[in-house]
Amino acid sequence: MNIQIWIWIQLILHINLNYGKNQEYVNLVNDELIDTQLMYSKSDIKEAVCYAFEGVVVSQTEVGSDIYSKLIYGKIKEYLNK
User: Fold this and answer.
1) What pTM does this model have?
2) For the chain (length 82 residues), average pLDDT per consecutive 10?
3) What is the CA radius of gyration of the chain?
């Protein structure tokens, strides 16, 4: 079973068991449900990755794997936060 589906099922069960008994708990569960929603589409991710690889002008051998991955990650984050 997909872990995200399992989390949804568990949260729904907790809501059903605790609804009306503790409004703070219900609010917590609702916030968790919001956090599990996807923020970006597959297309957004694909375009962000393309943007990153086009935007980083140094090669991995020039700067090393750690720096290169940080540069790529930074460009992806930059694109998605536009």
Assistant:
1) 0.54
2) 65 60 72 74 89 91 89 90 84
3) 20
Buried b (16+ CB within 10 A) or exposed e, 50-67: ebbeeebeeeeeeeeeee
Distance CA 23, CA 29 (A): 10
Return the percent helix, strand and coil in the chain, to nearest 5.
75, 0, 25
Among 74, 81, 79, which Cα is nearest to 47's? 79
pLDDT of residue 57: 92
Domain residue ranges in the chain? 3-35, 42-80
